[in-house]
């Protein structure tokens, strides 16, 4: 990267404008005009330049922001614990470097919980005395959209828990592949624009003004985060998933506690070839430090937790990116 500071400043300005425009299309309007691979490539270049010229990082840089603007039609929900984004790697070598670094700091080989990275959008569910009282999107990480009425239409979200717990869980709301194919076929037959991918279809379907539309879209969830785990005597990520499953939440059956990079590599290989056979989309796998106390100790940057990383699969987007989709339809 043989650029001087002046050239870097100009390129950074251009990248910020371009990427922030794409973020608005993707997060706020659910209408991406470029593929995730294209986005990730530009984002990496932005990160590289900012690492070389840290004095040029600005507060409106996409590297400092989670998600994007909130849709005005929904109530706002503050997240006392922010809902963050996630760091990512694109090769086993990079993943190995991330693991080595954490193991070296801990002076031992840590246990990791390895999960599928579901291609949807984050959702927070709050229960009081065992009753679902509020559901919200990630939004900009600190404030999300209140989508309670719509989430009440998702079949696998429990309205009532088997115990009168006051609890918050978080996870992914997604559109199964079959529902996505069906929705796009109907839209095409009706002469409407189709959704670019299941992730955008899920986001557009969850953020609807009419909960009946959400109901017809056949959304589903996988729940993977337990807030305040100490309160429930849970100390590990795999324990949290088992506990949430016991409460009736939909959890993904493929997560596994693993230690060595070789085992994680085998998991990646397996799901790289099995992903087409799954009934839902995944865009990678997530590796999380299994100890929840250690997760808390490691904390987060302004944008991503330090205790988890996404290994992203190579691009596989064959769907045509379309413009002009109305998110409200
Ligand atoms: P991300 O989607 O890469 O990763 C973070 C998210 O992963 C979490 O918020 C959570 O919702 C989800 N997730 C799924 N399975 C999970 C699991 N098992 N455990 C924990 N989290 C899980 O990050 P992001 O900030 O939501 O989005 C950034 C990505 O979105 C980019 O890398 C790019 O691929 C895509 N994007 C594309 C465009 C575009 O125009 N095409 C624009 C913006 C973003």
Automatic annotation (TrEMBL):
Active site: 117 (n6-amp-lysine intermediate)
The UniProt record lists the keyword Zinc: yes
Annotated keywords: DNA damage, DNA repair, DNA replication, Ligase, Magnesium, Manganese, Metal-binding, NAD, Zinc
Gene Ontology biological process terms from the UniProt entry: DNA repair; DNA replication
Keyword Zinc in annotation: yes
GO function term, MF aspect, one: DNA ligase (NAD+) activity
Residue positions binding NAD(+): 36-40, 85-86, 115, 138, 172, 288, 312
CC terms in the record's Gene Ontology section: cytosol
Functional note: DNA ligase that catalyzes the formation of phosphodiester linkages between 5'-phosphoryl and 3'-hydroxyl groups in double-stranded DNA using NAD as a coenzyme and as the energy source for the reaction. It is essential for DNA replication and repair of damaged DNA.
Family statement: Belongs to the NAD-dependent DNA ligase family. LigA subfamily.
The protein's name: DNA ligase
Species of the source: Lacticaseibacillus sharpeae JCM 1186 = DSM 20505
Residues of the full protein shown: 1 to 329 of 671
């Amino acid at each position: 990267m043989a650029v001087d500071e002046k050239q870097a400043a100009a390129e950074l300005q251009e990248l910020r404008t371009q990427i922030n425009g794409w973020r608005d299309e993707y997060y706020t309007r659910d209408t991406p005009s470029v593929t995730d691979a294209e986005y990730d490539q530009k984002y990496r270049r932005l990160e590289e330049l900012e690492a070389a010229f840290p004095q040029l990082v600005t507060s409106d840089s996409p590297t400092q922001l989670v998600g994007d603007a909130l849709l005005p039609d929904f109530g706002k929900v503050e997240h006392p614990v922010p809902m963050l984004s996630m760091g990512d790697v694109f090769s086993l070598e990079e993943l190995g470097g991330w693991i080595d670094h954490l193991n070296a700091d801990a002076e031992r080989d840590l246990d990791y919980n390895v999960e599928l990275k579901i291609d949807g959008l984050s959702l927070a569910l709050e229960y009081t005395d065992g009753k679902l009282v509020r559901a919200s999107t990630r939004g900009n990480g600190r404030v999300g959209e209140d989508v309670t009425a719509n989430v009440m239409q998702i079949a696998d979200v429990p309205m009532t828990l088997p115990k009168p717990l006051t609890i918050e869980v978080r996870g992914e709301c997604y559109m199964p592949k079959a529902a996505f194919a069906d929705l796009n076929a109907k839209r095409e037959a009706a002469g409407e624009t189709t959704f670019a991918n299941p992730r955008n279809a899920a986001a557009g379907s969850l953020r609807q003004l009419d909960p009946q539309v959400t109901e017809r879209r056949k959304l589903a969830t996988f729940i993977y985060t337990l807030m305040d785990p100490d309160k429930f005597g849970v100390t590990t990520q795999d324990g949290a998933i088992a506990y949430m499953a016991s409460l009736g939440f939909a959890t993904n059956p493929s997560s596994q506690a693993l230690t060595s990079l070789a085992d994680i590599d085998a998991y990646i290989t397996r799901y790289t070839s099995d992903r087409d056979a799954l009934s839902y989309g995944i865009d990678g796998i997530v590796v999380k430090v299994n100890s929840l106390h250690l997760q808390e100790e490691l904390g987060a940057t302004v944008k991503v937790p330090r205790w988890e990383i996404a290994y992203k699969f190579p691009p596989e987007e064959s769907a045509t990116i379309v413009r002009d989709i109305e998110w409200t339809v």
